[in-house]
Amino acid sequence: MKSTGSTSSVPGAGTFRPHRVVVLALDGLLPFELGIPHRIFGRPGDAAGRPLYEVVTCSVRPPGPVRTDADFAVHVVHGPEALATADTVIVPASYELGPVYERGELTGELAAALARVRPGTRLASICTGVYVLAAAGLLDGRPATTHWADAERFQRLFPRVDVDPDVLFIDDGDILTSAGVAAGIDLCLHMVRRDHGVAVANDVARRTVVPPHRDGGQAQYVERPVPDQRQTSTTGARAWALGRLHEPIQLRDMAARESMSVRTFTRRFRAETGVSPGQWLTRQRVERARHLLESTDLSMDRVAGDAGFGTAQSLRQHFQAALGVTPSAYRRTFRDGDEGAPRSEKLSTACGGTGRRPAGLQGSTTPGP
Question: Alpha carbon of 300 to those of 242, 304, 306: distances in Å?
């Protein structure tokens, strides 16, 4: 199965039609995770104000109530037939997966529902929703992730899946998987970014009041997700660095902003972000370069300088390591009218969307400054 991620809501792609996202609601679902796709994909619009996505929720049964893990049920108005209309299918977590979770086997009604999904449909899971994709045999020989606390059990049940318990999400082209809860937000923002670029995804993030980008390779579990208020955080140094990505930034300068030794700063930075200062800086600079490539006609030398890579050669090296595509190829995917293909399809192809994950989405290996 190969994802096109296609949508005709892009100039030059023919009659306007929003990309249809169908969310599969299973008994025992987590209401928070069910709402993530609606919140993220329900926000983006084009220059004319038309929604870029249409989000619907369906059940494996005819319309009716679906149990949640809370003290209320949700009434789902679409049955499994909605899956046949999807451009993207998202499976959120459920605590009542039964034989799917216990033995890695689909129930009859779930198998029948998934059989309606058209070939080429993009598939995604949030947290334990990955069990459904694995039980359907869609992840054999492929990388996937889930909540870190469930990863070991998932690997035992599905030994043919290449499980990475340490990342927020994995983009493997036509199938994307994420860790639990908030990582689902990161995954959905990543899909918006992949489909329509950094500016659109950042606008959604601002409206949702969440960070615009947490790289898929960021650690799920860090020592101190919320800094101890009695101790100094590295937040100020990160804000300072973001304001001068175009300048050389030394580790000692960042540490000095927080009045810490380099050793203490490095340890606390990793505890708070899950990555080294050098990895974090490289990711921020790649994001800056992405934005410039999408929104300006600056030369590669200018993009490299403004993003802090110094030279076009350094930009190409880091950009390709992070995204699996050259800056020039990336820029072409965000030029309207290029062969009439949707941006998501062109970007997926440029980034190696042929069933393997783009390089770099599992974390940078760039050394610290």
Answer: 20, 6, 10
**207-217 burial by CB neighbour count: b if 16+ within 10 A, else e?**
ebebeebbbbb
Within 10 Å of residue 147's Cβ, how many Cβ atoms? 20
Give the position of tokens 């959905």.
188
Among residues 236, 219, 331, the alpha carbon closest in space to that of 274 is found at 219
Tens-digit pLDDT profile for residues 226-245: 445 455 688 899 999 999 99
| pLDDT tens track for 199-223 | 888 888 888 877 665 655 555 554 4
Query: Do residues 57 and 78 touch, judged by C-beta distance below 8 A?
Result: yes
What pTM was computed for the model? 0.71
Q: Which residues pair with 19 in a beta bridge?
A: 53
Q: Pick from 226, 364, 345: which is nearest to 287 by CA?
A: 364
Catalytic residues: 127
